[in-house]
Amino acid sequence: MKRFLSFVVFFTALSAAAQDLTGVWRGSFNSGGSRFMEMPGLDNRYKFEVQLDQRNKAFSGVTYSYLTTVFYGKASCRGTVNPKTSKVLLEELKIVEVRMSNSTSACIMTCFLQYSKIGDEEFMEGTYSSMNEKDSSNCGKGTVFLRKVTSSDFYKEPFLIKREAEKEKAAQQLARKDTPRITPPARTNPPATQKPNPTVKKTSPSLVPSNNLARKSTAPPKQPERPVAKTNPAPAPVTIATVPPADTPKPVVRVNIPAVPTPHDLATRKNELVRTITTSAREITINIYDNGSIDNDTVSVYLDKKLVLGNKRLTDRPITLKFELNEDQDYHELVMVAENLGEIPPNTSLMVVKAGSQQFEVRITSTEQKNAVVIFKFDKNR
Q: Beta strand 270-279 with 370-378: parallel, antiparallel or unpaired?
């Protein structure tokens, strides 16, 4: 990109522990002059790969500046990261390997970068200055854009392979420590069954009168009672409550509203929410630029599942889109679809949103498997 678009990153509210730069970073840099001296016939766009090993606030590693993996320059580097501001200082120390044609000397860079994270994606972006390694003369300055990736265009350095193994081992130990251990209950022998002692009841002998004579009763004999006929009681009267008839239900009128079909690129790819913008402005103006190198990134834009921009190539000149928000249409969903990944994957763009007196800047990353979603909400009280 001929000019560097600086903007405020809204997603840098990260803890110091989350700012782990260890790994592989890849992107590009644009220079006002040649990165390497005496390279005829080459433009000012170069690929840039950085492999870092961070310990606390400091890190060390290597950098690769290249057009292809055959033509490149490799340098050792070191730097620091500020956990509060997420600012990164990266200094190349020495060129350790150079493979270029008709070149007598090379330059080393000092990069001033800003770390940010959007979802699962991590970025570093900023500017650099450079000087000749032999005579310290000025080699020019430019812009840098890096994204954290899982693989290298060259090979992973031994220090990085060792560090990744250490981190994986530590993660496994932490997982084992966090896994609760289930202790089986102790086995106890049941108490021996005790047989109850039989209890012998002692009975006292009955006392019999010595004279063995039964006393005669002088009371008159009782008359036998007459049986009383049993009668069933009369049943209690049952009161039947009269339930009023229910009102006749009114007929329901059903109105079939045709649903907007989901476009193929929205239905077959993952749609990831990047930003929700709530505003009281009624008119929204969006300008879309290429973010980083102009490498033929092409996008399509859908608004509420309707195609509004199709197969547009991103450059340093804005692609403009306007729409309205109001009480009746208080919600809009904008989806950015990558039609290709350009020369330097992934497809990256910068969206500058103007809503009344407010301005929002959103960095978009989309791939052939993932779309980027930005939601607009209208709130008259904002």
A: parallel
